Give the backbone structure.
Amino acid sequence: MNAEIGSPANARQENRMERPSFRLPLASLAFWGISLAWFIIVIIPLIILFVYSFFTTQYFQTVYSPSLETWTSLFSSGRFEVTLRTLRIALTVTMIELLVGFPFALWLAKGNVSKLGRAIFLALLTIPFFLDLSSRTIVWRAILGQNGLVNTILISTGLTEGPVDWLLYSEFSVHFGMIPALFPPMVLPIYMAINLIDDTLIEASSDLGGSPAQTFSRVILPLSLPGVMAGFVFTLGPALAAWVEPGMLGGGFVNLLSNSIESAYTALRYPVVAALSAFVIGLLLLLLGMMMLVLRRFGGSGLTLR
């Protein structure tokens, strides 16, 4: 018994217990270092942007005196209408992406898809990130134009007597161009969230007598809400700031906030650029807060079958 107590193994264990642990201080130091770097890189520029929006421009020069003139001018000269149009188009595109992307992500994560097929689909979803958005968008002008592929098919089949004008340089074409571009940012977070759901939870729901609809509404949907929220943000943010699709497919007839920002930047009205950018960020934060309330309200309502 005494030999066991004084054995080398017990001595090494006692040394490990007595040895001070540096993991906690190092982890805390890394956390505060990353937080400080994030604050410097992300938060401080946003604060400067917001402060800069309270300045004005006179004779192509910035006047560094606080004023509400820039903010009050945002809702004049049709900018309020542009804001509503931008918000409407962005929300419409985001909801279409969600309605189409969620079933696709669910099928890809929990459907009868082989590992090779899943890898192929994931690779196809990531390919657009390596292509220039302008080159992907300009192709639709040749497809949706008056002499494009769609109108050629419609006229040749006798469905229309002449070319359809609203296919290009309209809100329809802007929606159409934004949906393929923003499909991967919606699908990938939802796929990752659904893929992390334990299959035993789904099997337990079925064993307890839950129907497929109950399993979806009380198990899959609540557990996938973080991915839905991430996909919503990753889609809505670029949709609010989109400028390639309105410029190439809108033809100057569909003005969004990005066009106002570009025109203000061209006119050297930097406080207006700052105010418009801060306004877009504020809209995104507001919608993100609403999504957080929805996630808090319905996130814990799953895993119960009634």
Notes: The domain at 78-298 is CATH 1.10.3720.10 (MetI-like fold). The first strand starts at residue 56 and ends at 58. The radius of gyration is 27 Å.
